[in-house]
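Next comes the chain:
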Amino acid sequence: MFFDLNVPVPLLSKHPGQAVSKKGKGKHPTVPETAYTQAQISAIEAHVDLLVHLGYSVIAFSHSVHKKVDSKTHVNVLDSLLPKLKQRPGIIFLKRLNIVLDEDSEKGFGLINSNVPLFGNYDLIALVPTNQATFTLACLTHTLPSALTAHIISLPLTLPRLNFHLKHTLVRTALKNGGVFEINYVGALGGGQDVVLSDASAAESGASAKRNWWAAAREVVRVTKGKGLLISGGVVSDADLRAPRDVMNLISMLGIPQDIAHNAATKEPKSLIVRAQTRKTYRAVFSEPKIVIPGHQHSALDDIKVDSTSQSKQPSQNSIPPPAANSKKRNLEDAADVSKCDTVSVIENESSGKKKKRIKNKDGNGPA
């Protein structure tokens, strides 16, 4: 089972709603209705068909937002999109939200407790930091287990230079909390990026972006040591799509083994989705569940007893034969008493013999 957890959706065509007053007076304007055109839906269907043909089974459609998520104006466009797509057997569709962070997002970007119902409809939440402050905030604060946990930190690798340092302490803390660092392979091809990311200066395309991607991706692999890496597409054009095996070979050129590249496309996304589901139910997953049968308590002591009995049934050549059925420590004491009695009798016999010799010597009949 292969995963592509970053499939950008096109921008919506907005229907004209109530006019917004420049002075901001009067009633608050209603949010304009949004809908996908039939041409956009057909393009998304063709894109999904190509992903399924390449071998992807789990597809996450991503909706990107810049700076902040406002509860009054934010609209979850994926809720209206997924019901319109054709159902395919064995294919799973997920909903993902990307939040691009910049200087204006340092004071807050909508991940607060009052907006929990707003984010509850998304299966995955990803943060795209663009400076040192937002990167620190994403690693230390928003990867902690909560109802608003952002498990994905998507790095802008196509920029000429990262605006923040990948400190080992921040990276280790994020990995310990269950976060992953995403690498989109579209940057290695120099393909087109998401429109929202491009407008927010968080992504570039072209030959220069390709060189920047290779340099930044190697730095990410060096800091993370191949742990907690997530390989996604982020592809907009159908010409830039690649099969999962080709993506693994591409990522292995960054200096990571083939098994780690395989886990980045299969094992890591699967465990990420499981952790993301706990955001709606429990705080976190601490260990694997075990089935306990009522009326039977199996513990590690039972295994130790079984091992000890199996070893006792196989006596060695130098081992002492087992004692009788009803004998315990008393057998050892009896054996000790018997040995003492034998030594006493031997001593008495020797002493009696000496007395007899002495008597014979006094009578003069015995030898001198």
